[in-house]
Specification:
2 strands; two-stranded antiparallel ribbon; 597 residues; mainly alpha
Length: 597
Amino acid sequence: MLDADLDKVEAKEAPGDADMDTSEDAGPGRPGTIAEWLPNAPMEELQVCLKALAAENEKVAAQVKTMLQEERAHQAWVDKQEKEWKEKGEPEKVAAPAPKESTATAAQLDEPQMEVRYIPLRLTSEERTLLGILEGALYVSEYTDQVDVYHVGNKARRMGLQIQQVCAILAGLVVSNNFDVARRPLMERGFAENQHFFRSVFEIGRRYKILSPEKFRGAYGKLIHMLQDSVKSDVMRVTDFECVAPVKTVWTMVQAKQRGMDLLRDPLLLTATREIYSDGRSRAEVQAEAKEKTDALKELKQRYAEKPQGPAPKAQGDLGELLRGRQNETGVLTEDNVQTIVSSISDHLAFQRFNREPCERMIQYLKAYFNPNSSDPSLEINKGRGGSCLSHSHKTQYTFVMQSLLLWREIMGNMFQLWQLTEQDLLDSDSSYRLCDTGQGLNRMQSAPRVSRAMHQILHKVQSEVGSWVGLSVVHLGDRDVPNALVFIDKYTQVPRILAPLVSTLDKIPEVANASPANKALIDREFGGVEVLRTAILQDFFRHGFDGSGDDGGSCIDGRLTSCWNWCSKIEKKKYFHAFLLTGFTGFDGGFETGLS
């Protein structure tokens, strides 16, 4: 409709622009068609054209009015949030803490009840088989294509039928995978009678995603949106069962076992879950520490594992047990349970190291190569130069980068908690969403009070460490910038994908230079040496990776990450890009992919 109206106004000659026409002799520098004119048209001409359209067409006028109302409402919300933060006053200034050498410390398990509450259980081999079947079912499903569209008719019925279709595909794949075990339960009973099985399979997919955010990307968005609809009362009346089960964590397991809490408080657990590092250590030292870790696990099994009365329980995720609606009903800790608990906590510590270490290393690089009280080298940025949307002095930009990295490090350390709070917000039956065009297609816009509360606690903690805050303190959630908690959490899974390749390149530059005289001569000739090259990369990243080139100016909490990704997307155009290639750089695996189909 808008294109037709634009053509109509163009044919009548747009007001204030008598030189614009569609003829071939429109003149040099003036495009001859509306399609050629629009992308490069001055803002003043676009405003004049839009006013003319609004004056002629009531529908266009209504659309313009709605857009202006939404923009004013959004700006009012941002102003209100910022005002609330300022009224709370600035926290007492405290020096920024030095980065920790390792996240796998005893302090992490000082309060086991709080720590393990959000640690998912590692998947067993049986559960991984069901995970592969779930991925296949979601791959062929067109759930979001059928549901997240504007259409007439009973939407709840459409959702229910699509959910049943996914369950039917899942049942067919399970039967084909294990015909003897699954044929009778799945083929002779209805969906509701097999609800324990379907809930368990969906829970396995959700748990796997929390453990491995870089995996299960497209399928997870489809799964979580399906489960988001399944908790609605009118949809449940169609499906006749509830699809959502709580995610299994270390905490749920130890609570269900008789001596579970004693196991968590045992000091040997720290030894059994400790990560082993080989850097700078002899082979004998690494082997001795590995033996100590193995012995600690054996001792824990001897202390706490018991043999259950009766037949031995089936493995977690056993297909036959899931179809019967029961799993691990024994109340005693078995050797497999102890192994699962230790492995899950070890996975958690490794996950934190993988996510936090790039942030800590970048903080170390910032402190090593730059001084807030000295502008040589300088981090100063100016609006309009180099794509920057902000103007910061050297000291202000140093503080802006430091607080951003500290915030990301804190978020990475609480990733499991934030992910489970994300699912609680998304799967809350009392919270509804609405389809909204956010400028990036239709998105489910929904509030996220639990994630918002946790993020504000994290933000307050970082603010107390860095003192005065540079930029906005607004956390976008449930608006057009970050429409729901899924988009929010997926944005922050990109942090290690952005920083880890950068840290790897900076670390390997000296190794590459010392690998051969030709490499050293190349780096010296092209960049002036290893340290000059490192400084140039860091200076450019700390400047233009945090220059506010986000959607709303980039100084808010989420805009910092957006501008950082903008820098990554332009890495091929940097003059030092071939130095990245020498270190084995292949790209930044990321982008703000929500996993939606």
